[in-house]
Amino acid sequence: MRIAIGQLWQETNTLNPLATTRADFEQFGVCRGHDLVEQMADVNELGGFIQSMRAWPQPPEIVGLVRLPAWPSGTATAECFEWLRSEFFNAVDAARKVDAFLLALHGAMVAAGQPDVEGAILQELRERVGPKVPIVVTLDLHTNITREMVKAADVLVTYHSMPHVDIFETGQRGAEVLRRMLFEGAQPTTAFCKIPAVVPAENSSTEAVTGIAVDLKRRVVEFETQPHVLSAGIAPVQPWMDIPQFGSAVIVTTDNDPEAARAACDSVAEEFWNRRREYMPTLFSAAEAVRFAHQQNGLTVLSDAADATTSGAPGDSVWLLAELLKYRWPREALVTVVAPEVVEQCANIAPGTQRTFALGGRRDNRFGTTIELEAIVERCFDARFTMTGHIGKNMPIDMGRSVVLRHETNVCVIVTTRSGPHFAPEFFRTAGFEPFEASVVIAKSPCGFRAVYADHAAAIYSVKAPGCAPSDFWNYAFKNIPRPLWPWDEIESWTPTQDLLQK
Ligand SMILES: [Zn+2]
Q1: Where are the domains of the chain?
Q2: How far apart are CA 318 and CA 305, in angstroms?
Q3: Are 170 and 136 in contact (CB under 8 A)?
Q4: pLDDT at position 499, please?
Q5: Ligand 1 centroid vs 429 CA: distance in angstroms?
Q6: Each residue of 176-198: pLDDT tens digit?
Q7: Considering the entire predicted model, what is its pTM?
Q8: Which of 27, 254, 291, 320 is in Cβ range 3.0-4.6 Å of 261 for a Cys bridge?
């Protein structure tokens, strides 16, 4: 038996003016064929696929197609989409006859002229291989599941956790579904419900003690333990995509029990809808949050959600940095900025030299602002490390040449060439800092950072600053989304049966 595996991973934020290009994928780490199976054997979903299949009673031949990953950013160019499509289908053609496909897709990628990249790729794959070859797909929790994706794939398996600490396990779950189809004759039957609601990310932690996200996760995980259920997932979509078919979703797939799939999907979708207001976060202004941080003795983490690089924002907002500079800090206040031109400028400056730098507002020229910072060039380094936690298991990251700028207030600005996980402790450590011992860490992440900081921070505040991934996204102009859609619109009544798709 031969099983083909592959990956397309990018989360698009259409509010970000920076286009995602082929070069972004090539830089992040495309790998193909045998190299993919070797290099990804313990990384993210692909690692989950590979290790699961190797443990099957009759291990199949694992055929590596292609891994196409890029860090979350703006809409992909039409040329980039065409390149991804040809990379993927060239790999499918080269693999020749396979018995099934196991694919790790993010599920929220948008290209110019193509609002549903994964749906388009899955549809084309289905047309090429015919109705009988199983296609099992894993997706991020923030996927925008479309009807085209549901119709083209046999089973869609989403992450259960936010922070995304179950990526490898989602790969294992996907492989297990495929095993049941291939060896036990499982017949997937799916109920899918699109919910006319999009919710902020701040209160979406499934790993908190209580809350709506915790309750909904518990329910879908419980469904999955039932023997007739192949997969159950809830997908509160990431909120910064101006596209049709936009909305949250519930998807349940059983082994030939359409009634059970429908009932479970209906009931979870109804609970999500009825409790949607519980996702609304408490936000603090930058001035308030920084003042609170200054009053704390321990570590304060300030979440700058609007510039969250994990949400596809450009990472060069300096609104919080400007506030930090108004205080003196007993230990370091750590903040990051993506600014390749500043890194380049520092290449010719000896460490220890003081200079004035223009920071911010270059990449996000819509909501960003620029400040002048007089600081000492402390050190230059390569922001290259392996990340485990939210978003990754053993995931290699390379944010390029970087520099630490130290201001007299003890604010340290870590400037990188490229975007990346601008919250990860591994990143701060690569820069020479222990983030848990800082006075303040600005996490450019709305919620995922909690996975590592919750146990170390004396206080955490969600800050409302301008940016491309705003928490109050419904106050921004979206032209292409379906209406009515909550919270852009108040919707008096809605029932899951209105939007249920069964297959
Ligand atoms: Zn996500």
Answers
A1: 2-279, 284-470
A2: 13
A3: no
A4: 85
A5: 24
A6: 999 999 999 999 999 999 999 99
A7: 0.97
A8: 254
